[in-house]
Design goal:
This protein is 39% helix and 15% strand. A hairpin with a 2-residue loop joins strand 11 and strand 12. Helix 5 packs parallel to helix 14 and helix 9 crosses helix 10. The chain has 466 residues and is α+β, with helices and mostly antiparallel strands. The longest helix has 20 residues. It has an eight-stranded mixed β-sheet, covered by helices on one side. Strands 10-12-11 form a three-stranded antiparallel β-sheet. It has a two-stranded parallel ribbon with strand order 1-13. It folds into two domains: 251 residues, no CATH class; 161 residues, MM3350-like (Structural Genomics Hypothetical 15.5 Kd Protein In mrcA-pckA Intergenic Region, Chain A, Roll).
Amino acid sequence: MAGQALIVQPAEGMTTMANAANTPTIPQPDFMVRVYAAGPGKMASMQSAATVPSFDLRISIEDTEPLIWRRLKVPVSLTVAEFHLAIQAAFGWENRHLYGVRCEDPAGKARVIIGPGDGMEDLDAEPASGVVLSDLLDAEAPTSALEYDYDFGDDWTHQVQLLGSAELPAGELVCVDGANRGPVEDSGGPHGYRRLVEILGDRTHPEHQDAAHWTYTVTGELRASFDPTSFDLAAANRKLRLLSLQWWPQPVTDDERDAVLRPVRWLLEHATGDGIELTKDSYLKPAMVRRALEELGWSDAVMGKGNREANVLPVRELREHLLAWKLLRKLKGRLVLTPRGRRCRERPADLWDYMLDAVGRPEHEAVRLVTRLYAEWHVSGIAPPWNRRTEAIKGALESAGFVTRSGHPIPDDWVTDINRTVIWKLGCLHLMEPKKGYFDQVMLTDGGAKFLLEVLEADREFSGAK
């Protein structure tokens, strides 16, 4: 930021933020992705009919062995910019590079489209946001096709073949089938990725350790878990679903709201009446900890015996956050509802709104920035691997101008502290689907996506009002 620096304190001093009124815009390095929203015209057209005209497409990456491919059904009204994001989601790309589309349109005109718009100033091409798929493909023409190129350095060419027309429920994108995991970003194109896979599969190769270390650094995956032949159809469709919820927003249902708020409501319900008896050190008693563990599905978070808050951190954090949010208070050795907690327990819609404020508008600007960052990562389905997350957060804080009071760079332990603050805050809600495997990416539920989209929208309005 020109002319000023924002001062960040460690977590204990998060309410003493200097220059908090000057909120920076989050920069967009590798692991910061924009959340895209549909224009009013698209939203109206998609919600006015039960089904919409769509294309049935087979997309394969040239020169990959075995062939990496997906079959997608997408509305004909998608812009090329939106189609790009659908391909990114289906193949597991991370939206880091320029992309382009080349084809001959139904009128016989050669078309070259480049995106994103801020990366094509010196290129003689059409902007991706101004062209829709129906301008480029004709369902009546059996040979209708186009090429989608991603990362002009590595040069990943995707052949897009039109199989025919289709009908989709309004507001949906679907991956029907596919084979093999998407390539690793920046692995050197088809030849480089093929060589990487060969080296990872050969423990005797002299470059095996280097390749395994590089893969772990950029993906967070251990060599033993890296399977180039795997393809998770459900995960691909989950990412496409996150896109559809951004482009064609839907109101949160009562069931979705209750599922997201379940941990908070669970503790509020148990604190009704006389409240919850605490230990002499003001912790939940072992029986209550075990009950929370079982009823909230937190069994995988146990360290040691699952009957002490110290061994079940989500339970401890839930209690402490509800106290900090003034939904609960301690009274004569018991945990009881505050007037606000009583009102929110009785009115789930009020609790939803209150949690949007509590999560999305923390007092400390550094925490607000990192909350926004996590919301964008989760909503986009594109996040840095866990082993690079702190590095990405530190880069975001420094790019936004945060420094210590003495003007020095933010210490790593402060970054870790802020990161933990945001993680535990979000962990008080059920935003994510159950995790299948240790290295699998956790994905938002529909309710979780709608909650974080509201957090992002409120943050934009708050920043714009300053």
